[in-house]
Amino acid sequence: MSEPFVVITTHRVRPGQLEEFKALSRQYMEFVAANEPRTGARFASLDTAETEASLVQIHPDSASADQHMQVAGELIGQGLALTETVGIEVYGEPGPVARRGMEANAAEGVPLSIKSRRLGTFVNRPAINGTPA
After folding, report:
1. Residue 127's CB: how many other CB atoms inside 10 A?
2. Does 133 reside within a domain?
3. CA 23 from chain center: how many Å?
4. Domain extent at residue 92
5. Model confidence at 120: pLDDT above 90
6. What is the DSSP letter of 38?
7. Considering the domain boundaries, does residue 26 fall inside one?
8. How many domains does the chain have?
9. What is the rounded CA–CA span in Å between residue 8 and residue 123?
10. How far apart are CA 112 and CA 88, in angstroms?
């Protein structure tokens, strides 16, 4: 059985780009919801100063994350043009597409943490969706 694959990225929004970033974030979420049925969940949040955003992706496996990188690549690139990546956390073993992107970020000095040795997994899908089991 494949294990869930989780990626958390944190980005500093470039000065003067906040409103464009917010609009792009809405477009991105709508695109992922419509075009990536295997994505388990996606959360995007801003800090209270609205200068830093974190995105949490939960995939059923690393192949889904690789597919996401390919399908949403154009929108990801647009988002990266509005931000500076300040950190990447990975839970699970990345596939080849995601790994290339992560390694490229790390080569540019972005802190990268990959935790690929799973200690355990529990997913309460009804609770994630806001409904009791």
Report:
1. 10
2. no
3. 17
4. 5-128
5. no
6. T
7. yes
8. 1
9. 17
10. 5
